[in-house]
């Protein structure tokens, strides 16, 4: 893997975390009612609104965004990149696993979007575990 791929994956994860985290923390009721946005709504089917749970989820995503932003500033530090990837991978595998067991509450479009988007997050996280190839450390 080269550093461009690291930047792309870290950027994707950071934007995802910042989008979800800021919305959930600073506007939890609206986040619960209309996440992921774009005319879709995936959270009410999972249970009633709970401000504490929504704000905790937002805080967790904001913490992941901060870790990812720090890592973006040190993208050549393999240990930090792999640690960040491992943290994201644990979360994203467990998150995907939960949603795979609860797809029945959604229509076909939302089922497909859940699987595709959550799988993309798992793959993006896993790619961060791959070290920079020898002789390619100068890639930017």
Describe this structure in words.
The protein is mainly alpha-helical and 140 residues long. The protein has one domain. It contains five helices and two strands; from the N terminus they run ααββααα. Strands 1-2 form a two-stranded antiparallel sheet. Strand 1 (36-37) and strand 2 form a beta hairpin. The radius of gyration is 16 Å and the shape is globular. The N and C termini lie close together (11 Å).
Structural class: mainly alpha
Ends distance: 11 Å
Q: What's the total number of strands? A: 2
Q: How many separate domains make up the residues? A: 1
Q: What does the main sheet amount to? A: 2 strands, antiparallel
Radius of gyration: 16 Å
What is the overall silhouette? globular
What is the N-to-C order of secondary-structure elements (H for helix, E for strand)?
A: HHEEHHH
DSSP strand content: under 5%
Task: Looking at this protein, list some descriptive labels.
140 residues, 5 helices
Record the SSE blueprint.
Elements: H1 3-26, H2 28-34, E1 36-37, E2 40-41, H3 51-72, H4 78-100, H5 108-127
Antiparallel strand pairs: 1-2
Helix pairs in contact: 1-2, 1-3, 1-5, 2-3, 3-4, 4-5
């Amino acid at each position: 893997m080269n550093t461009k791929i690291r930047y792309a994956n870290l950027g994707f994860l950071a934007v995802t975390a910042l989008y979800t985290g800021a919305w959930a923390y600073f506007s939890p009721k609206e986040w619960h009612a209309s996440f992921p946005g774009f005319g879709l709504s995936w959270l009410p089917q999972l249970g009633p609104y709970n401000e504490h749970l929504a704000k905790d989820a937002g805080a967790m995503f904001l913490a992941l965004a901060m870790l990812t932003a720090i890592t973006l500033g040190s993208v050549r530090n393999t240990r930090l990149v792999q640690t960040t990837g491992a943290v994201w991978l644990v979360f994203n595998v467990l998150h995907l696993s939960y949603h795979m067991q609860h797809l029945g509450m959604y229509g076909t479009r939302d089922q497909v979007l859940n699987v595709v988007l959550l799988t993309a997050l798992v793959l993006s996280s896993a790619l961060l575990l791959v070290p920079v190839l020898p002789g390619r450390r100068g890639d930017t």
